[in-house]
Amino acid sequence: MDELAFADATTLTEKLRTKEISSVELLAHYVARMEKYNPEINAIVCMQLDKAADRAAEADAALARGENWGPLHGLPMTVKESYNIEGLPTTWGNPELKQNIADSDAVACRRLQEAGAIIFGKTNVPIHLADFQSYNEVYGTTNNPHDLERTPGGSSGGSAAALAAGLTGLEMGSDIGGSIRNPAHYCGVFGHKPTWGVLPMRGHAMPGVLTPSDISVIGPLARSAEDLALVMEIVGGADDIHLPGWQLELPQPAQKSLRDYRIAVWSDDSIAPVDQTVKDRVLKVARLAEDAGAIVDYGARPDFSPAFSHEQYMNLLHSAMSARQPEAVFEQNLKRRQSLAKDDDSSLAQVTIASTLFYRDWHRHNENRTHLRWAWHNFFQEFDLLLTPMCVTSAFPHDQNPQAGQRQITVNNESRPYFEQVYWAGLTGVSYLPSTVVPTGLDERGLPIGVQIVGREMGDLHTIEFARIVHEQLGGFVPAQAYKN
């Protein structure tokens, strides 16, 4: 196996620091692999290789002088296409934005580079970051390195695919409906959706937008939990407008081993039934902790109904997503809403109303969300973490039916609605909770399965640390077989 290609960023930065390999050599290694493998995966879709090569040479020269740029000194990496990188297009997969050339770097990308990273490319997304797949008319379709006929997930699908195929050292994605977490699950890598607001969003937005989107967060994908924690330390904290007044100090986990945890398990739900193969992995992690002496409760739930939570999520999600849509699409939705019958409770009607909420209605859902947040707060007085599925199946075959509402997925040999699976992302996302996906190995078809680890607000380092301990026991990251050499 190509050990260098599949090493995590923590290992690679140590190799760079000790001069076991140079930044120029590591970048060349990724470029060679990208030239060989990326054409069929189509994960990295936009590059600045000359600029990266110059920066890598500077990193090596600085190290030779005894300078240290930071914890990512000389590490080549990529970021999701939706981040602004000066001089590169930021399209969000929309052909109308092909000429949207960024004039500055996103705050997160600036902080990564100030810590020594070398961003050499950007990775693929679905249009408007709004799908469980990653394809668009600008850059085409990204394939899952474990099976090219299947999705790598979305919207950070290119991010996860690049890591799984050993094409990059580290990645930054974003998440409003599982967009970090489901690609991590589908491609077998680590992903972390932070507590809402703890990583600055500026520079990850549609042109001209400065207001952070509701529910949406940015966060890392990587080949280890240690890498996730490292990125949280580098990127986390206030944006410039608040920087003089507060600094982020996420609480450190006190637990030293699995036996120290109090864990709740939510392995299935009638709102979005989970394939037995996925459910079994959630239970496997739970029993791993239980066998080590942890307190594990398979029936504990926060004090609200799942349907109530999902109602708030769907309304707030579609309201937030509608702000990304062109004006003409919003006007079309508004006209459709005005023509709805009062008793129309169809899925289309629900999405239409959620996409055109009046502020008073939005405020009601937001108030309900605040009640959910306090219910979770109370729940996490009794438990350290919650284990859930991330998706209802392993990676599914590509389905680019333009009538997205007609798409189906197969769960336990039964056809289910495509968008039903967003429930597991929204269960925690609507309440701003941090969630880490840990890979647990491959299923019988050779496809990865991840498990979602959920913590209380600001409990990011707790979920990441548990992922580290679990992975230490299970060794769940498996490089894509076809790209191991």
Output the keywords.
about 475 residues, alpha+beta, Amidase signature (AS) enzymes, eight-stranded mixed sheet, three-stranded mixed sheet, 14 helices, 15 strands, about 15% strand, globular
Write the topology of this structure.
Blueprint: H1 9-17, H2 23-41, E1 44-47, H3 49-64, E2 76-80, H4 107-114, E3 118-123, E4 135-136, E5 140-141, H5 157-164, E6 171-175, H6 181-187, E7 190-193, E8 217-222, H7 225-235, E9 262-265, H8 276-291, E10 295-297, H9 306-322, H10 327-338, H11 347-354, H12 359-382, E11 385-389, E12 408-411, E13 414-417, H13 423-429, E14 435-442, E15 448-454, H14 460-474
Parallel strand pairs: 2-3, 9-10, 9-11
Antiparallel strand pairs: 1-3, 4-5, 6-8, 7-8, 7-14, 11-15, 12-13, 14-15
CATH class of the domain at 9-256: Alpha Beta
Identify the overall geometry: globular
**Series of secondary-structure elements, N-terminal to C-terminal:** HHEHEHEEEHEHEEHEHEHHHHEEEHEEH
Whole-number mean pLDDT = 97
- Which regions contain 5 or more consecutive residues with pLDDT less than 50? none
Task: Give an overview of the whole structure.
This protein has 485 residues and is α+β, with helices and mostly antiparallel strands. Helices cover 36% and strands 14% of the residues. It is built from 14 helices and 15 strands. Strands 6-8-7-14-15-11-9-10 form an eight-stranded mixed β-sheet, with helices on both faces. The chain has a three-stranded mixed β-sheet with strand order 1-3-2. The protein has a two-stranded antiparallel ribbon with strand order 4-5. Helix 7 packs antiparallel against helix 14 and helix 9 crosses helix 12 (359-382). The longest helix has 24 residues, at 359-382. The chain is globular and about 70 Å long.
